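Key result, reporting period 2: structure in, sequence out.
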């Protein structure tokens, strides 16, 4: 992927804003019959629990994990973009190998 077809910075910024606006993590999925034996399935957050209607277990687990996964992925994208920038636009050329110049 080159810089012409990469995800625009504005899209990443919107994702970051949605993460910042959401209830703080971590979130944890609790499925009735799998993680506990009474009550309903829910996502535990640092504030109010989230109860979903119509979600599969996989959907609920995905939503709960996304609270932690999306910020981690955004950070990784930023780190990799910075590294690409460093490699494509080095601040200064690497030091010359003195031994190569002298043949020693």
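The corresponding designed sequence is given below.
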């Amino acid at each position: 992927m080159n810089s012409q077809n990469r995800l625009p910075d504005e899209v990443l910024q919107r994702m970051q804003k949605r993460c910042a606006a959401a209830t703080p993590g971590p979130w944890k999925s609790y499925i009735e019959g799998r993680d506990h034996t009474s009550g309903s399935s829910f996502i535990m957050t640092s504030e109010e629990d989230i109860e979903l209607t119509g979600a599969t277990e996989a959907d609920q687990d995905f939503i709960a994990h996304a609270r932690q996964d999306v910020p981690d992925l955004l950070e990784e994208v930023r780190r990799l973009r910075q590294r690409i920038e460093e490699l494509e636009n080095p601040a200064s050329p690497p030091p010359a190998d003195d031994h190569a110049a002298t043949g020693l």
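The first helix runs from residue 9 to 21. Residues 27-85 form one domain. This case is discussed further under Risks and Mitigation.
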